[in-house]
Amino acid sequence: MKQYTHIIFDLDHTLWDFEKNSEETIHTLYEQFELAQYGKFDSDSFYKKYKFVNNRLWDEYNKGKISQKELRNARFLKTLTGLGLGTHQIPAGISEAYIELCPTKTAVFPFTFEVLDYLQPKYGLHIITNGFKEVQHIKMTTSKLNPYFKEIVTSECCGYKKPDKRIFEHTLDLIGVTPDQCLMIGDNLDCDINGAREAGIDQVYFNPEKTATKLRPKPTHHIHCLSELKSIL
C-alpha cells in the first residue's frame, strides 16, 4: 500500500454537508421574506428549484463561464422567476441573507470528526475548495473543522479553480511535498477526481448518494461513507 503523508479534502459536499445546510437556510428565508404570500410555491418547491438552479450555476462557475458576482446575482433571480414571480417581486436582500446565514450552519457528513480524529495524528490534513474565501472561513469555524487543517486553499486566493491542475500544484508547493505523497478526497468527479489525477495525485471519490455513474478512468478509491477511509488509510 502506498505510504501517503498528506491528505487533501474538498470541503462542500465532502465534509461540510452543503445540501442539508442549504436546505435549512432556504426554508428559513421562505419564512423570513414571507414568500408564501404570493401563493405560487411552498417551501419545499423553493428549495428544489434553488438547488437545481444553484447546481447549474456552480457548474458554469467551475468551468470559468461566469464570475462569483454573476453566480450570486443570478441564483435567486432565476429561482424565483422560474417559480412564477415577477422580477419586481423578488425581495431585496434575499441573496445577501442567504450568504450571511448559510455558512453558519454546522451539519457535516456522518463520521467526519471520528475520521478526522483518526487521521490527524498520522497525516498532514489540508483543504482545497472552489468556494469563496470569506464564506469557507465561516463554515470551517462554526462547524469546528478549522483545528484539523494546516493549509486551506481557496480558488479565489490561488487564482485557479479545480479541476485546473495548477491549484493542486500550488497546494503541493505550499505543503512542500510531491504528488505521490498525497491523497485527494472529494465528491466531484471532474473538479476533485480528474483534477487531482491530472496533477499526479491519487484520489478517493466520495459518493454518499451511491450515484450510478461510469467511472472512466476509475478513481484510485471509491467510497460511500467517510468511515471507509479507515480501511484505506
Task: Characterise the protein shown here.
With 233 residues, this protein is α/β, with parallel strands linked by helices. The chain has two domains: 6-17 and 108-232, HAD superfamily/HAD-like (Rossmann fold, 3-Layer(aba) Sandwich); 18-104, DNA polymerase, domain 1. Helix content is 45%, strand content 12%. The chain contains ten helices and six strands; from the N terminus they run E-H-H-H-H-H-E-H-E-H-H-E-H-E-E-H. It has helices spanning 18-32, 43-62, 68-82, 94-101, 112-119, 133-142, 155-158, 165-175, 189-198, 229-232; strands spanning 6-9, 124-129, 151-154, 182-186, 202-206, 221-223. Strands 3-2-1-4-5-6 form a six-stranded parallel sheet. Helix 1 (18-32) crosses helix 2 (43-62) and helix 2 (43-62) runs antiparallel to helix 3 (68-82). The longest helix has 20 residues, at 43-62. The model has no long low-confidence stretch (mean pLDDT 95).
Give short descriptive properties of this protein.
233 residues, alpha/beta, Rossmann fold, DNA polymerase, domain 1, six-stranded parallel sheet, 12% strand
How is the main sheet built?
6 strands, parallel
Q: How large is the radius of gyration? A: 18 Å
Along the chain, the helix and strand elements come as: EHHHHHEHEHHEHEEH
Q: How would the global form be characterised?
A: elongated
Strand content is 5-15%
- The fold-level CATH name of the largest domain is Rossmann fold
The total strand number stands at 6
Widest beta sheet: strand line-up: 3-2-1-4-5-6
CATH structural class of the largest domain: Alpha Beta
CATH architecture verdict of the largest domain: 3-Layer(aba) Sandwich
Which residue ranges are poorly predicted, with pLDDT under 50 across at least 5 consecutive positions? none
Helix content: 40-55%
Number of domains: 2
| CATH homologous superfamily annotation of the largest domain | HAD superfamily/HAD-like
Class by helix and strand content? alpha/beta
Mean pLDDT: 95
Please report the distance between the alpha carbons of the first and last residues.
9 Å
Protein name: Noncanonical pyrimidine nucleotidase, YjjG family
Organism: Pontibacter arcticus
GO molecular function: 5'-nucleotidase activity
Pfam families: HAD_2
